[in-house]
Amino acid sequence: xxxxxxxxxxxxxxxxxxxxxxxxxxxxxxxxxxxxxxxxxxxxxxxxxxxxxxxxxxxxxxxxxxxxxxxxxxxxxxxxxxxxxxxxxxxxxxxxxxxxxxxxxxxxxxxxxxxxxxxxxxxxxxxxxxxxxxxxxxxxxxxxxxxxxxxxxxxxxxxxxxxxxxxxxxxxxxxxxxxxxxxxxxxxxxxxxxxxxxxxxxxxxxxxxxxxxxxxxxxxxxxxxxxxxxxxxxxxxxxxxxxxxxxxxxxxxxxxxxxxxxxxxxxxxxxxxxxxxxxxxxxxxxxxxxxxxxxxxxxxxxxxxxxxxxxxxxxxxxxxxxxxxxxxxxxxxxxxxxxxxxxxxxxxxxxxxxxxxx
Amino acid sequence: xxxxxxxxxxxxxxxxxxxxxxxxxxxxxxxxxxxxxxxxxxxxxxxxxxxxxxxxxxxxxxxxxxxxxxxxxxxxxxxxxxxxxxxxxxxxxxxxxxxxxxxxxxxxxxxxxxxxxxxxxxxxxxxxxxxxxxxxxxxxxxxxxxxxxxxxxxxxxxxxxxxxxxxxxxxxxxxxxxxxxxxxxxxxxxxxxxxxxxxxxxxxxxxxxxxxxxxxxxxxxxxxxxxxxxxxxxxxxxxxxxxxxxxxxxxxxxxxxxxxxxxxxxxxxxxxxxxxxxxxxxxxxxxxxxxxxxxxxxxxxxxxxxxxxxxxxxxxxxxxxxxxxxxxxxxxxxxxxxxxxxxxxxxxxxxxxxxxxxxxxxxxxxxxxxxxxxxxxxxxxxxxxxxxxxxxxxxxxxxxxxxxxxxxxxxxxxxxxxxxx
Lengths: 358, 421
What we know:
The complex is a heterodimer. Chain A is mainly beta. Chain A has one helix at residues 2-5; strands at residues 10-17, 21-27, 33-39, 45-53, 56-65, 69-73, 84-88, 93-96, 106-108, 115-121, 132-137, 142-145, 155-159, 168-174, 183-188, 192-197, 202-208, 213-218, 227-232, 236-246, 250-257, 263-269, 272-280, 284-291, 297-299, 305-307, 311-319, 325-330, 337-342, 346-352. Chain A has one domain (16-353): YVTN repeat-like/Quinoprotein amine dehydrogenase (Methylamine Dehydrogenase, Chain H), CATH 2.130.10.10. Chain A is built from one helix and 30 strands. In chain A, the strands form eight sheets. A four-stranded antiparallel sheet of chain A has the order 1-30-29-28, with no helix packed on it. Strand 13 of chain A pairs parallel with strand 9 of chain B, so a sheet runs across the interface. Chain A: WD repeats lie at residues 133-146.
């Protein structure tokens, strides 16, 4: 229908089969290059650098590492250098200079088990304050690292003594709007979401969404925290309005059921923080738009401020694969360009059109 | 008896016969008229008119006009010839009957043929309609595909342009780098340390104007980077956390919620059961009617070694409430001590029966039941069954060393007996 064609279209641009399982894919900032991280069949780690040329991806570089690589981020890298921080299956955090990737620039065996998720802040000219990297691991801990400090993390969020641990599946930085403020949000496999304030070194908020939290992202890391999206197993995701924290009820949220299977990733469009894409276990991508309510906060019966969640509407969806799409990244330089990696050993570059009209 | 209509008038032309049939006082409808090639009947109770026609007519073309008190027939002859009379003359009863039946049969056949023909036509119409809709849908789909393809090509071109700009930027950067290297190593180090904190990336702008990124990124690289000192690394801190407790310590995805609910319900039910006949227990004291109290009493006596008394206590408790698995479990332990091995097996089995559905909550109880039954079997020298139970216990709790060792011992014994026999 004509009305349907006015909505953003998800156009599949390039499809690249890989000879290994890809766990994460990221655009290299300021370029048309993308990075794929994963695990080769023989149990070693693979890092590949591709460049988008014409209608295909040209392999520029391939590096093999001892342990399979699970996740990576450029978030803490300086723009000039664009160092990549990775977490691997052995629990080691390493920072690499892609022009000399044999020896890491920084490395630490920070965790006892696989690092499931990594995020960086303070680099790329985004946000204020020192560049920091946060890692979340299956050993139940979340650690924040400063690449200038060797061996010990600058913050450690760990289970209390005697507490049985839960796997941490995802971490995200947020609220980094000045040099002092910063929060880390962590999601666990039992549905816990915990918000840590790094300035006061305390737990600021926690909640439980019943299903394991697969992915967390603030709509912007470098502003006063505005929205947080949490995706989980069994096809649900929640959008929290982070502007107003009620003393007992916490943050208001709206939740949506989609994908009919695990929602693996959520990524906000860098150029418009109210648009985000979720990727699902059935190999599909959904593009969403968040609409704010008329009033973002209201007073409850006791006069305390509480937030009001808005609504989420589906703009478009597409099914690309039969296997889960486990990683997703928007290009920070070209609006609508995104890359996704799926468990069918394929990485796909997509272009989302008409985002200006949304 | 129907009234035969005899007064009718008719006239004919070379091609048609005109028959006028008076039927006063009755309403005639099309259903009352039956006409075949050579037979015409009008039956309107109480009137009946019948005519075995002289010659064949074309009944499909013929018409009947029903008027006020009279029916006017226009029958078109098959052969243009003058009829001597309207009806066939001098037919006897048998012939009449035969002619009637024939007529009916013929009518039947005709009707059949008509329906067949109708069906065929209907089928063809449907087919045609289907094909037409298919074509329409195809056209629509193609149109959408074309639009999408156009979109795709446009976007691809756009991307190419952007990408070539990125390349230019990269080249510029490289040139710049080389330029800097000429300036000296120290200056380079300086530059690398500086943080690009204030320069904003043109992310929020729309990407319609393709020239903007070039300008923006140029400015980032050629601009003299501000001397923002980075804050020192954060002073280390630790935050200890607790995880949300659940009745069953497994995440929603792992829990077998339905089974766990069932188990909880069963437990609640069991608590409420009072199975014994109250009349027998009238002479019991209040506390002796409480299965829990009795269970505790039994446990105490087991602890002191008075196994018979413990069994008695458990017996009474079971009479009061036969749905508590723990009673059977403990009684099995007593029987084991008393070497009532068959009773021990019975009780352990009953306990296991009550401990369904198997959930993490009743793991310990089940392990105990299996171990006790296993022990009883072994003492009866039924080592194979005993081993089975021990292995079941291990399956639930693989970390228990005692169970492992005992299982090993049993295996050895079995192997020993097999070798000997």
